[in-house]
């Protein structure tokens, strides 16, 4: 099936390198972005990274706002401030939650957004979508794609290993997401972009290959991972939806977040979901699980403190989360018995 209209939303510039946050002012000005600027950041990141960035912004009109989670209340707070301070450019400095709030507010007020990720933990760095709690849906909504990305590898490599692993987990998910997309094209006549799907799959391949590099040279490994995460976001921008990056494995992750919130990182849940959905798809889930173990990603719900019953329940409700996006879970989902069998056979529960 052809799309009636297709807008490809991509960044104008991607700055990637070492210690490049020192050049932030130069980058921003070369993009002709005007102030006042609003830096959206998190409490921890503010202390360890953001304050240094602000120093490099001397002589410009800059305000900083701290956000704890990506919720509609935080969005409203940031939007109010942005409007009252007549902000022209929003810079998101932080993990996935911060980037999502920054790009969503930029979308709502029609201003430019610059993405400055501090952790390679998610592929929302580039994507023109955001996940905001309290909007009435657990999945992402349209947001402003970044005009520029500033990816400082020294900053990203300083993130805790758990966040780095979560980024690998989020990209591993593309293996089943693309399978689901192919299935939807076959069974439901949904638009399928071969090139975009290949791009998403390539991200998974590169993220997995970075695992070996990470142990020898953390910065080199994080660079490969960051490029994979940016690229997966490009796939979403090209597809005009998160379809190439989010399938049944993400539905499982979202279901866990609903039933048992804030226990695990997004990428960790996606990776667990990928083992389960790969099993149902009949692809080599053992190989995926082995690769996850090697990286240090949890392969059992218990490692994340998630009870077995929550995993089973999540599997049974996952298909209801985004019914318009067809996946291997079909329209009717899994029975409790089937879910339990899948979770046990893959070793996700005991
Ligand atoms: N829009 C999209 O397309 C996508 C969106 N997402 C969304 O992203 C979110 C997950 O993002 P994720 O990054 O995993 O989680 P968070 O944004 O919650 O970040 C996790 C923690 O890491 C901290 N942190 C960030 N950078 C560093 C650093 N360099 N050193 C030390 N600590 C650091 C944060 O600090 P602080 O407390 O200061 O913030 C936070 O406490 C989910 O909500 C998910 O839905 C995921 C994929 C795609
Ligand atoms: O996390 C995402 C891609 O990695 C976005 O997924 P959703 O559209 O399912 O929220
Ligand atoms: Zn994701």
TrEMBL record:
Entry's Gene Ontology molecular function annotations: glycerol-1-phosphate dehydrogenase [NAD(P)+] activity; metal ion binding
Cofactors named for this entry: Zn(2+)
Chain residues that bind substrate: 123, 170, 254
GO BP annotations, alphabetical order: glycerophospholipid metabolic process; phospholipid biosynthetic process
Cofactor note: Binds 1 zinc ion per subunit.
Primary site of residence: cytoplasm
Residues that coordinate or bind NAD(+): 96-100, 118-121, 127
Chain residues that bind Zn(2+): 170, 250, 266
Catalytic reaction list: sn-glycerol 1-phosphate + NAD(+) = dihydroxyacetone phosphate + NADH + H(+); sn-glycerol 1-phosphate + NADP(+) = dihydroxyacetone phosphate + NADPH + H(+)
Subunit structure: Homodimer.
Function statement: Catalyzes the NAD(P)H-dependent reduction of dihydroxyacetonephosphate (DHAP or glycerone phosphate) to glycerol 1-phosphate (G1P). The G1P thus generated is used as the glycerophosphate backbone of phospholipids in the cellular membranes of Archaea.
The protein's name in its UniProt record: Glycerol-1-phosphate dehydrogenase [NAD(P)+]
Organism of this sequence: Sulfurisphaera ohwakuensis
């Amino acid at each position: 099936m052809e799309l009636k209209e297709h807008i490809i939303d991509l960044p104008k510039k991607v700055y990637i390198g070492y210690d490049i946050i020192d050049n932030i002012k130069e980058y921003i000005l070369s993009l002709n972005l005007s102030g006042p600027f609003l830096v959206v950041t998190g409490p921890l990141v503010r202390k360890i990274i953001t304050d240094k960035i602000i120093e490099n912004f001397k002589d410009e009109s800059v305000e900083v706002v701290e956000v704890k989670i990506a919720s509609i209340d935080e969005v409203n707070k940031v939007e109010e401030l942005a409007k009252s301070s007549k902000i022209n450019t929003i810079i998101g400095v932080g993990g996935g939650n911060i980037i999502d709030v920054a790009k969503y507010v930029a979308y709502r007020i029609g201003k430019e957004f610059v993405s400055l990720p501090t952790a390679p933990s998610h592929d929302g760095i580039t994507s023109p979508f955001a996940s905001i709690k309290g909007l009435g849906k657990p999945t992402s909504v349209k947001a402003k794609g970044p005009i520029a990305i500033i990816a400082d590898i020294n900053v990203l490599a300083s993130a805790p290993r758990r966040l780095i692993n979560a980024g690998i987990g989020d990209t591993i998910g593309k293996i089943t997401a693309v399978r689901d997309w192919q299935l939807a094209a076959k069974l439901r006549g949904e638009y399928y972009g071969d090139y975009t799907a290949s791009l998403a799959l390539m991200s998974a391949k590169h993220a997995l290959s970075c695992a070996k590099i990470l142990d020898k040279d953390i910065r080199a490994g994080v660079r490969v991972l960051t490029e994979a995460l940016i690229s997966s976001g490009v796939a979403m921008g090209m597809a005009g939806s998160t379809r190439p990056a989010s399938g049944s494995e993400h539905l499982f992750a979202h279901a866990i977040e609903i039933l048992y919130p804030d226990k695990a990182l997004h990428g960790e849940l996606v990776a667990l979901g990928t083992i389960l959905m790969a099993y149902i798809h009949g692809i080599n889930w053992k190989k995926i699980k082995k690769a996850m173990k090697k990286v240090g990603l949890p392969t059992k719900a218990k490692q994340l403190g998630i009870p077995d019953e929550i995993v089973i329940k999540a599997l049974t409700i996952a298909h209801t989360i985004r019914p318009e996006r067809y996946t291997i879970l079909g329209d009717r989902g899994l029975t409790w018995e089937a879910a339990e069998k899948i979770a046990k056979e893959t070793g996700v529960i005991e």
